[in-house]
Amino acid sequence: MVDADQTFVIVGGGLAGAKAAETLRAEGFTGRVILICDERDHPYERPPLSKGYLLGKEPRESVFVHEPAWYAQHDIELHLGQTVDAIDRTAKTVRFGDDGTLVHYDKLLLATGAEPRRLDIPGTDLAGVHHLRRLSHAERLKGVLAALGRDNGHIVIAGGGWIGLEVAAAAREYGAEVTVVEPEPTPLHGVLGPELGGIFADLHREHGVRFHFGARLTEIVGQDGMVLAARTDDGEEHPAHDVLAAIGAAPRTALAEAAGLALAERAHGGGIAVDHRLRTSDPDIHAAGDVASFPHGLFDTRLRVEHWANALHGGPAAARAMLGQKTAYARVPYFFSDQYDLGMEYSGWAPPGTYDEVVIRGDAGKREFIAFWLKEGHVLAGMNVNVWDVTAPIQKLITSRTPVNTEALADPHVPLADLVP
Fold first, then answer.
1. For the chain, percent helix, then strand, then coil, each to nearest 5?
2. Would you state the torsion angle of the CA atoms of residues 308, 312, 318, 319, taken in this order, to the nearest 10 degrees?
3. What is the model's pTM?
4. SS (H, E, C) 148-180
5. How far apart are alpha carbons 398 and 375 in whole angstroms?
6. Which candidate, 203, 215, 212, 227, places its Cα nearest to that of 155?
7. DSSP H helical segments within 279-307, as ranges?
8. 10-residue mean pLDDT series, the chain (421 residues)
């Protein structure tokens, strides 16, 4: 039984950590809750960093999970700008801060998130090379894009994933020139496969984005500390004033690894290995959010999901498990994106190689459609593009694990709800 004498420590001040703290109090936990964040900003949500906030359409205050006063009002001991450098599992303590403060825990949640992967090429020390993961990154990039737009400047984006494309869209709205360098034959190839990636390539080309597929950056050329161009492994050189590295994110597992916790295999996305209750190999330590690799029975594999919805729901699930509640985390992965006038939502998991058919419902040419990825007639994933209020039936089709009639699935006149057993 959890009582008021217990101390729960949360390491990581992102959405997962903040929602876990909120859930502990909402569920009636009266013990100490200590939330340790390595950033100086209060916990915030990341989607606006490449969407509304980056575009200047949402104020800075809108990104925060709670009002600053909320933490004191709910007796959450918030430590900003503090890094945890060690976990002692035997003594059940964490050490953090410049003075090496030690704090005891009864339960510990690791919500350390992920960090942007770095370009390992010459020139990354130049002033115009950027990453986008933190609020401070977005603040800097926002000013850069505005200046590029005013001066007809050029940004080269390494990586045609979601972050790369969302920043490309923002850059074009500011008026900057954009080139995206992507080693795969289409953008979003690892998520959507070749069937749907071309739709996003066409969208961006219509808005003036240049793509260079089948290539990687090999050098960023500069002068007097500033970027002049970006070179690729096929001998091309792209003029640039700035470069964005958008080549993915790596789970921040160093703290867990040093503590001897089990990690997931790289084939499963790496991260901290947890069970269905988000418990690590130490039953008193949980993990949630981008850093956690959890078993998903629906897809019969481990998943590490780097999206907002996973942090939103994973943090509370871990908190309830820390309280001893009988919970199992098995939500269908979900994410969304906004680019120009295209809005989309994606539910499920169907990377290339896991599906044998793609079914389109609607008009892909007009970018008003739903795409379904199937294997042996079962829906593995669905993406609705400029079609709304269909997430629930799409997810029911996925969780039903029942074969569907593909002709009816492709027919917009057949309600999706009618296809759910």
1. 30, 30, 40
2. 150
3. 0.95
4. HHHHCCEEEEECCCHHHHHHHHHHHHHCCEEEE
5. 11
6. 227
7. none
8. 83 97 97 97 96 95 97 98 97 95 97 96 96 96 97 97 98 98 96 91 97 98 96 97 97 98 92 98 98 93 94 98 94 96 96 94 96 96 97 96 95 94 78
